[in-house]
Amino acid sequence: MLLDRLAAGPSRAARITHTEHLPPRAGRHAVWPDRIRPEVLAAVRAAGIEHPWAHQARVAEHALDGDSVVVATGTASGKSLAYLVPVLSALVDGSEAPNGRGATTLYLAPTKALAADQCRSVKELSQPLGTSVRAAVYDGDTPFEEREWIRQYGTYVLTNPDMLHRGILPSHPRWSSFLKALKYVVIDECHTYRGVFGSHVAQVLRRLRRLCARYGASPVFLLASATAAEPSVAARRLTGLPVIEVADDASPRGELVFALWEPPLTELEGEKGAPVRRTATAEAADLLTDLTVQGMRSITFVRSRRGAELISVIAQERLAEVDRSLAGRVAAYRGGYLPEERRALERALHSGDLLGLAATNALELGLDISGLDAVVIAGYPGTRASLWQQAGRAGRAGQGALAVLVARDDPLDTFLVHHPEALFDQPVESTVLDPDNPYVLAPHLCAAAAELPLTEEDLKLFGPACEELLPQLEAAKLLRRRTRAWHWTRRERAADLTDIRGEGGRPVQVVEEGTGRLLGTVDAGAAHTAVHEGAVHLHQGRTYLVRSLDLEDSVALVEQATPAYSTVARDTTAISVLETDIEVPWGDGRLCYGSVEVTNQVVSFLRRRLITGEVLGETKLDLPPRTLRTRAVWWTVTEDQLDAARINPEILGGALHAAEHASIGMLPLFATCDRWDIGGVSVPLHPDTLLPTVFVYDGHPGGAGFAERAFHTARDWLTATREAIASCECDAGCPSCIQSPKCGNGNDPLHKRGAVRLLTVLLRGAAESGPAQQAG
Q1: Is there a smaller number of Cβ atoms within 10 Å at the N or the C end of the chain?
Q2: How would you class 287 by CB atoms within 10 Å of its CB: exposed for 0-12, middle for 13-18, buried for 19 or more?
Q3: Does the pLDDT of residue 747 top 70, yes or no?
Q4: 294 by DSSP, 3-state: which?
Q5: For residues 20 and 260, what is the distance between their CA atoms, to the nearest angstrom?
Q6: Phi, psi of 214 (to 5 degrees)
């Protein structure tokens, strides 16, 4: 067995904390609805598919009935065919209209790579249908000379929400014939539209529906999602329409062996003398190397762009020691690459020239990579939905496969590899998004008004928060009311007011200093931490040092180098309460939810030795502070509770700080977030609460719904946090329980036992308050 070969040797075998065997599942067939065009059914049969799975036939039936529908089934369950069959049937029908363009379809994907991949699939499937299906990708990489043809003649246009927001909707008169005929809108991988990004996309879709209505169209929405909790609820929040749910997966599945893998402790000491585990990056690179040597096709998913580059570099070096020809069969794949680099990697992966890939979640999202033997996941990806989506990349076409989750030295990862029931016995999460977030809604009201004057009738579409926002937009001289409609008043493009990815600001261009060559881009929100002066930047397996960061011109100048270390930014954070929306008693303490203002400043960076993670030194930085108005959950404790927990003033700061770190680490188990989407502050005496207080806040303007979810699951969330700290084997705290990789205070002070006692007393108060007073 493949896992036995990877775990050969006593030290490796001990790293496997749990193995889950997911049995194979037989498929259940059905028949396509008889309203599907016979030419389409013939094309599907020509592609080797005689009968649909039961869920595919149900989706097609709903689509033909004019019902918006979401199909939420496992990876490789044929979701694409479920919506493609009714769509292609409609396009063939439309081709017989007098003008030859009686129906059109708009396809939205969260990434360019997925749209390009789906376009290839559509063209292959629809080849027997001739010119009745004219599929084309319309995104930032589309040559300008092709764009007019697509607007005029494309019947199946594949794009992304960014291009819809910035390019298509503001230019809707040029798309009028396409929008008039729009019958279906396909939203692929819709579970990725969560948090701030999901909230923005929800408003973009409302703008699309409004323009379609003006052109006389009322498209049906067909959504495809990984397995998710309450997919119809999430789809309704995303589209603003009632959506029928199809979640009974009738496709067959091969056996999947899923191993949980914990890297060993090293002899090194980290901050404050804490024990240090071998990094998930180093372990995953070893596994990728071994899989490649054995000729196994595999993908290693990693959380960060830097991690993807690092794993590929380490694997290439180790493969070269075995066989120099193997080194070229492993590569990295991540966002920020130039379009031609992404396309070349996708072709190499499809052809089999590449055996192994270290990838960010850009490859999680639906690229049709068949026949993979194994998936290695370097660090829990933040949600169970993403975990299963990534693991599902292996074993397509029904064969057995292996998935390995390699734990990072992190509270949540450590908790999960020792509590497999939290992964395998729990349903996937609900998708969290908040279209009414005023920071999201306001710029879309402006964009809508710029597209067509905004009427009172339109406001129902955008939600109840409009009434409060419109006077503010008028006062800011962004909108002006004339008679019965609001008009955009500026010369600038209203669509440029917001970045729907929630990053804000222009991306920072990464430029090679000696040549002036553009290497790629970094999101504006990440620039202070990713490309500050002195940062190590990885691109296509090459290492660069950042020589300067110009925030005004959004340019980072780099030069190629080979430092024996990586860099990690450190920051400081202060927080003030603006408004408390909800407050519930937890014994004498309080659990609260409301609005806060956060002031953050990157102050230094650490240099860490590659592979081991050993800290080599710290360098100060001089970067401007940034302020953020957002949403937070916070809890307070009283003097009596501190006495009950045996917390004296000397250890109070460390106990609060440790509880804050661990709770941030554990929140992704309860909300669809990443620990880097959220932040925290702990204060022994906060000026607004006048009590010891721990805050956890959304790292996005106006909030993303994560802190609200934390408030409503607070008892379970903080109980798991206490358990994670108490069960850790270390004496005084380590990265597996209370140390944070992004702590601006160098993980000082921290008090592990104090945090456990403090949370015990706090949770006792929650239990005493009774269920009627619990949040949610």
Answers
A1: N
A2: buried
A3: yes
A4: coil
A5: 8
A6: -65, -30
Give Cα separations from 486 to 438, 458, 479, 489 (angstroms): 18, 11, 6, 9
Evaluate whether 468 touches 740 at the Cβ level (below 8 Å): no
Would you state the pLDDT for residue 623?
95
Residue 520 is predicted with a pLDDT of 83
Tell me which H or E stretch contains 269: strand 265-269
Q: How far is CA 760 from CA 89, 647, 721, 764, in A?
A: 61, 12, 10, 6
Q: Is the peptide bond before 749 cis (omega within 30 degrees of 0)?
A: yes
Residue position matching structure tokens 């659990």: 591
Instruction: Point out the least confidently predicted range of 501-505, 552-556, 580-584, 740-744.
Output: 501-505
% of residues, the chain, pLDDT over 70: 94
Identity of the amino acid at 621: L
Contact present, 769 and 584 (Cβ < 8 Å): yes
What is the distance between the alpha carbons of residues 735 and 79, in angstroms, rounded to a whole number? 40
Q: Residues 546, 592: contact at Cβ < 8 Å?
A: no
Give 242's pLDDT tier (boundaries 50, 70, 90): very high
DSSP 408: P
Return the closest-CA partner of residue 287 out of 376, 221, 363.
376
DSSP state of 189: T
Token reading at 595 = 């609005």
Query: Position 125: which residue type?
Result: L
Q: With 50 as the cut, is the pLDDT of residue 776 above it?
A: no
- The 3-class SS string of 305-355 reads HHHHHHHHHHHHHHHHHHCHHHHCCEEEECCCCCHHHHHHHHHHHHHCCCC
Q: How far apart are CA 455 and CA 483, in angstroms?
A: 10
Measured distance CA(52)–CA(86) in Å, rounded? 13
Q: What's the CA gap between 81 and 87, in Å, rounded? A: 10
pTM: 0.78
